[in-house]
């Protein structure tokens, strides 16, 4: 009988391959990946494909789309090239989205990990602070921070991170609370492993998958927040931004609605791509949650 | 004489593509007569629970579905009935009792409401008559104070009571067939015996046929009239209980029965001269309820109360008790995974509980632990060799040496060294438990605390792991503190046992003496509750597989 | 479920909110200190300048020469009495303006949340019961699109369609100014004005509730007690109403409480676009006009509203979950 126990299962495919297979099974996720790739491509090639400065006049004001191939998607009321705005706006949206997400996840993981791992008064204090941030309506806090710090792109990114870290913090805390009493953590503690190692080497890798999935949500929300700020005219005036284009388009909505519609659709598709990506990541990283 | 209540012929259940085998059940023939208890026995994955699903027509279709055969209930083929008629049969003519009474009851409805629902669905009784019937049923299953339980939510009553409620619910329309799917597995032994008695009693009163699904041959010996043994979806043996239990024919059944720990303790070994490696003195731990200012109504619970014991070198000390006895708390306190309120734990002559964090990390190498859940006790993101080598590396061994040693240890626990680079989820439960043992051994500890190390395993795997533990203990002169709820397991391995109840030691002594002549009423009750205690598994060792 | 248990649970949650509110007070104070310029600067700016000695005198009068913690103490003492100071833009106490604006915002919140919650829960439950079917795919896709549409973009497109092209709905404001409607005509007029803002604000949250409800129902369906109910012979409708919904609603109710503050934040954009005289629009104008006292007043008032709403959802949750005494 001991022979049976020494039998080893067949070796599995490398983890990356398994993950990709699970991800690719979700066709919507592949669409998301494609859209996301497109946005990234636009952001990377903004200076090359569309060398026109999106903030300068490029043609006659209010040229309709598809009428003049020098400005394929037309121009707004100041004669600025809408396609150039899309390309350069993608850059800003992604930049703000990625940085704000990294920052807020970073803060969230730190707060959530400490809170969930240690519990007790550490948890009490950190959770009250988290609740305070959650109690203030996030967009109102964002407005106040921008009003105080100013509208430069760095401060906008920072402000978005400050209003977005609470959800990942709660999520990481919940994961830590359920994982910290798992037997493998006790086992490592019993080997004499230090608290820092327990937090970062034992628990965190197991707590991360849902956070990675949630990062796609934060990314989408950050882009929505940035564009809303820009729409209200509170964005960084030195950069083209989709939200700002929509805001500008509002004044010519009755006659030339495409000025607002085109960047609006760009935001919609970008955010959609993150949601689809997130679902694909969820299928890949948390396979137990979905039935075949 | 009329025909059987249930007659299953050639039942086959198909599994989805990509499962480990095409059929969960490949041709089951089984019949249950009125007034008869038929046990369907098998290890996990044998397809026994899916049989219940097929009879109730509640399989998770279309992934798992019946692929052939017939299920005749009172002569009618259930598989051919329209859903509407099937719905009328469920809960009325065929009732089911589930394994986990906590999750099987809706947490948001009162007990009374949930029993009442059966009557509302299948009868035209008015509210008053239904209430009277529900109270009568609660009384029938021996629930003290039926009126207050009637209005209680499931979480407000004990596990044993919940299972009684489930039984009352299933029996209130006097069904012809009751399917009991591991109804006592989640319960403590003393409660288990009471529930088994209750099922027996009611079945005789109601003359229903019972299909009793279980993995435990002790329970079979306790309750079965006839037995059907399943292995990997194949029916390997069937017959009257006495025959199958005492003269099994099929090699698989023989292997299963051989694996059951006999209730015969080992010959006492003398450890009086051996040095004490672990000495616990006056351990006390109280759990305060959470909730602060306004939540302070709940009483504090004394999990462990003034507990002392010695463990000698080379000895195995069993800590035995039911859930809530504090035995797990003891294992966590002596390893200082949990802080005790008072007391001392001397390991190697030094009090572990008084150590500073730095000293503690150093001391931990002397006392290691093997955990209960083979799924949860290994970090799923680490390779086996890193799991085993982690301890020595933390304590300063050079990583390459530690990993090489990890491979040796894998061999010691009878696993292939090729396992070293795999991840835990690639292994079966028994193999994972061996990895857990290797991890503990890597530290070359003086004491190993094993917290229910085999209770999550199937009986055949359990026997192998127990044998391995005993071998290693003797070869490496290990001292074991062995926590278990299973008296059969304790009898097999432990030199001495301490019996715990509500945080206190009620009795302790050399295993053989204690089993032969229990003094404390609680110990007597525990021993009397071991399922199948009247049945001694036949000695089949001569030609066991 | 005993009333006393529900109350003690709710009270416990309310007590937890006390430190949160205190933290927010300190937070708004810090923000005020960080902001360029203080009350005296604003006052002096309003007067068109003053000499240094007079400014010093004013500073002393307003307590701005005191140590920071004394200022904090005075600030908090005032704020608990809902005294948020003077608005130099409106030339009125901040609190007066806030009260005037509160009603509109609450109306918008109430209508948006009830719309989002009911439709989200119903669609989510339907999608889950028909999981992986065409219906489910359509509902889920709709949810994704709602989720991805920025409220300001949606608002503009609705204005374009319903006001500019079709002329069915008013472009903005909370009522027709010149009409002086009374009685039901007034109610109808306000309702017409609220249709587009409500839709714009609620769609994203509708998609949240939809997705959560769908996931929650799918999870509850797998639970043992649903299997028990099936084994009792209960039909699908009965399963849904008595066994699944009640349990599946719990996480959605939690989200309702958690997200209320986000919805309140979303009102800034929507109120601004539709020219609704509520707190959101006020917040935007205060940023533009740098009326910091007003902004901090809004933050504090919103926080109080959120605390109250959370208290109410806690009560609702305790009412729904019989196990609450255990928590």
From TrEMBL, chain A:
Transmembrane segments: 28-49, 92-118, 139-167, 211-234, 255-277
Residue stretches making up the ABC transmembrane type-1 domain: 90-278
Entries under InterPro entries matching the protein: BP-dependent_transpt_permease, MetI-like, MetI-like_sf, OppC_N
Matches recorded under PROSITE patterns: ABC_TM1 (PS50928)
Coiled coil regions, renumbered to chain: none
Subcellular location: Cell membrane
CDD domains in the cross-refs: TM_PBP2
Keyword Cytoplasm listed: no
GO biological process terms on file: peptide transport; protein transport; transmembrane transport
Pfam families: BPD_transp_1, OppC_N
Signal peptide boundaries: none
Membrane topology: Multi-pass membrane protein
GO cellular component: plasma membrane
Protein name per its UniProtKB record: Peptide/nickel transport system permease protein
UniProt keywords, alphabetically: Cell membrane, Membrane, Peptide transport, Protein transport, Transmembrane, Transmembrane helix, Transport
Entry-linked Gene3D superfamilies: MetI-like
Family assignment from sequence similarity: Belongs to the binding-protein-dependent transport system permease family.
Automatic annotation (TrEMBL), chain B:
Annotated ABC transporter domain residues: 8-257, 278-527
PROSITE patterns with a match to the protein in the record: ABC_TRANSPORTER_1, ABC_TRANSPORTER_2
Recorded topology in the membrane: Peripheral membrane protein
GO CC list: plasma membrane
InterPro entries per UniProt: AAA+_ATPase, ABC_Ni/Peptide_Import, ABC_transporter-like_ATP-bd, ABC_transporter-like_CS, Oligopep_ABC_C, P-loop_NTPase
Keyword Transferase (UniProt): no
Any Gene Ontology biological process: transmembrane transport
Superkingdom of source: Bacteria
Family: Belongs to the ABC transporter superfamily.
NCBIfam families: PRK10419.1, PRK11308.1
Name of the protein this chain belongs to: Peptide/nickel transport system ATP-binding protein
From TrEMBL, chain C:
Protein name as annotated: Peptide/nickel transport system permease protein
CDD domains registered for this protein in UniProt: TM_PBP2
Annotated Gene3D superfamilies: MetI-like (1.10.3720.10)
GO biological process: transmembrane transport
Transmembrane segments: 14-32, 106-127, 139-162, 190-210, 248-274, 294-317
Coiled-coil stretches: none
Compartments reported by the entry: Cell membrane
Domain ABC transmembrane type-1: start-end pairs: 102-317
Biological source species: Rhodovulum euryhalinum
SUPFAM superfamilies: MetI-like
Keywords: Cell membrane, Membrane, Transmembrane, Transmembrane helix, Transport
Keyword Membrane carried by entry: yes
Family: Belongs to the binding-protein-dependent transport system permease family.
A UniProt-annotated Pfam family: BPD_transp_1_N
InterPro entries: BPD_transp_1_N, MetI-like, MetI-like_sf
One term under GO cellular component: plasma membrane
Membrane-related topology note: Multi-pass membrane protein
Keyword field contains Iron-sulfur: no
